[in-house]
């Protein structure tokens, strides 16, 4: 009897496959530069051999410090071909933060954009500047694929999350996790041979990498957007004929703010949103601005991967929800007593799927704190599941405000604030209060002067009194991370 088998899944697999199957198809576009699958396959093999020649061995870490550019996918594939582990580094980090990631990950080599050459200069490791030096380095390396055997359950990368209450944590993401994510995105959002997308979100972020690289793993074409600009994005969609594009809510907000009339983008059939909640008011604008485009809203995390998806047939009917569990995903909603809760009752969301992380690098305590003995991982989010199984995010566990002994969920307040015509963005946080324990405070980005008395009267007609903010603070912009998530911890620390 024949037994099913085959090579282990590796993120380099798709590059190898389409390097043979469609060698002349354009894989990556970056401004006036473009490379075919054959060139991507060869250049990634040269990356792999250059690293192996430098003395690196299976499981060693290679840091990559750059933004979205043509070299990003070939470096990721090359690191995988060599059996090494990628450490994506956010170019926006402070020098001390970059140094922490390099040291904590144990990176032995840093591939760095030449414009960032001075980053963490005191960390001793081999450096290759992406530019002319990188091209010379590639030319001197062998072009033959080294074919290092990779265990698909081993990590392909260590993705560092923003530190909320301390140093960032390194999330160990396996080849298997990411490859299955790529195949699932092909099913869900049509990423595959002949399909075109744009790397809008930064590839050093988990979702930005997953949804851009998925196009290459599945034989499509990805165009690099180096920095976000609404006009440039829409021009690229039109010029390159993009069909499926991943955005975060901040991107939609900026498009809405800066572009009065959305052009007819005839090729665009799918938009999918992730990384932060898509407010109902903004989502309604997206429906109107892109009337012939299917809108997905998904929910997940670096640690859990994609957990849920709200698909186009239910996008309007269930606005405010993030949908049902994604492919091969189980969820639990657990109450404060540790027991499952029924429909309509808030509880903490746990998920189990093949997309989960392996754990946190060199941090078994943090890994144990967010996982269960039977393989579920906590999201740290409070959710409600309705009678039809649709899940809605209520708020982060750590963001829930306890004012006068009563729970206030900031998202409830934020959704109502955003319906006021003078408020374009907002964030609601809890701050210490001698009388209430915590008071509700709203940070607002608006058009013109926002009168607190007028806003309070507006809210009292729509919210219970205990949810109405005790204080309103106007700000020019809300602090956000690379994924577009609002950094509420920075607001709490604002004097």
CATH architecture of the largest domain: 3-Layer(aba) Sandwich
Strand content: 25-35%
Total count of domains: 2
Unreliable stretches: none
> Total helix count?
14
Terminal Cα separation, in Å?
71 Å
Q: State the assembly state of the protein chains.
A: single chain
What's the CATH class of the largest domain, please? Answer: Alpha Beta
Structural class: alpha/beta
Number of strands: 25
- Envelope shape: globular
CATH topology of the largest domain: Rossmann fold
Percent range of helical residues = 25-40%
CATH superfamily of the largest domain: ANL, N-terminal domain
Task: Using brief descriptors, characterize the structure shown.
alpha/beta; 495 residues; 14 helices; Rossmann fold; four-stranded mixed beta sheet; 25 strands; GMP Synthetase, Chain A, domain 3
Written description of the protein model:
Helix content is 29%, strand content 26%. The strands form seven sheets. A five-stranded mixed beta sheet has the order 11-12-13-14-15. It has a four-stranded mixed beta sheet with strand order 2-1-10-9, sandwiched between helices. The protein is globular and about 70 Å long. The chain folds into two domains: 13-391, Rossmann fold (3-Layer(aba) Sandwich); 400-492, 2-Layer Sandwich (GMP Synthetase, Chain A, domain 3), CATH 3.30.300.30. The chain is an alpha/beta fold and 495 residues long. The chain contains 14 helices and 25 strands.
């Amino acid at each position: 009897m024949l037994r099913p088998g085959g090579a282990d899944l590796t993120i380099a697999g798709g590059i190898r496959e389409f390097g043979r199957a469609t060698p002349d198809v354009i894989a990556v576009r970056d401004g006036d530069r473009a490379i075919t699958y054959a060139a991507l396959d060869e250049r990634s093999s040269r990356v792999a051999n250059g690293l192996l020649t430098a003395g690196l061995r299976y499981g060693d870490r290679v840091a990559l410090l750059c933004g979205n550019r043509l070299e990003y996918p070939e470096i990721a594939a090359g690191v995988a071909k060599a059996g090494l582990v990628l450490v994506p580094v956010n170019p926006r980090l402070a020098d001390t933060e970059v140094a922490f990631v390099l040291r904590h990950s144990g990176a032995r080599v840093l591939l760095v954009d030449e414009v960032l050459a001075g980053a963490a200069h005191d960390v001793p490791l081999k450096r290759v500047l992406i530019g002319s030096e990188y091209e010379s380095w590639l030319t001197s390396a062998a072009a033959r694929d080294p074919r290092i055997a990779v265990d698909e359950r081993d990590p392909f990368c260590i993705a560092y999350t923003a530190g909320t209450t301390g140093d960032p944590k390194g999330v160990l993401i396996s080849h298997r996790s990411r490859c299955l994510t790529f195949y699932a995105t092909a099913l869900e959002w049509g990423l595959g041979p002949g399909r075109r997308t744009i790397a809008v979100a930064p590839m050093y972020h988990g979702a930005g990498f997953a949804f851009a690289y998925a196009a290459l793993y599945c034989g499509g074409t990805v165009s690099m957007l180096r920095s976000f600009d609404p006009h440039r994005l829409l021009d690229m969609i039109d010029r390159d004929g993009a069909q499926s594009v991943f955005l975060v809510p901040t991107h939609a907000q900026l498009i809405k703010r800066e572009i009065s009339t959305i052009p007819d983008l005839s090729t665009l059939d799918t938009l999918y949103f992730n990384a932060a909640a898509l407010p109902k008011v903004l989502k309604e604008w997206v429906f109107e601005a892109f009337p012939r485009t299917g809108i997905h809203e998904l929910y997940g995390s670096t640690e859990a991967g994609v957990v849920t998806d709200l698909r186009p047939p239910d996008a309007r009917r269930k606005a405010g929800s993030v949908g049902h569990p994604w492919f091969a995903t189980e969820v639990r909603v657990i109450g404060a007593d540790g027991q499952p809760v029924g429909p309509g009752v808030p509880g903490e969301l746990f998920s189990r799927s093949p997309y989960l992380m392996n754990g946190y690098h060199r941090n078994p305590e943090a890994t144990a704190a967010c996982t269960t003995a039977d393989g579920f991982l906590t999201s740290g989010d409070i959710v409600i599941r309705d009678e039809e199984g649709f899940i809605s995010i209520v708020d982060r566990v750590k963001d829930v405000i306890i004012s006068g002994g009563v729970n206030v969920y900031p998202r409830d307040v934020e959704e109502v604030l955003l319906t006021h015509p003078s408020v374009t963005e907002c964030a609601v946080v809890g701050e210490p209060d001698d009388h209430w324990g915590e008071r509700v405070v709203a940070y607002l980005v608006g058009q013109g002067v926002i009168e607190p008395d007028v806003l309070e009267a507006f809210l009292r007609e729509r919210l219970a009194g205990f949810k109405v903010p005790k204080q309103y603070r106007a700000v020019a912009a809300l602090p956000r991370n690379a994924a577009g998530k609002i950094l509420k911890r920075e607001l709490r620390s604002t004097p």
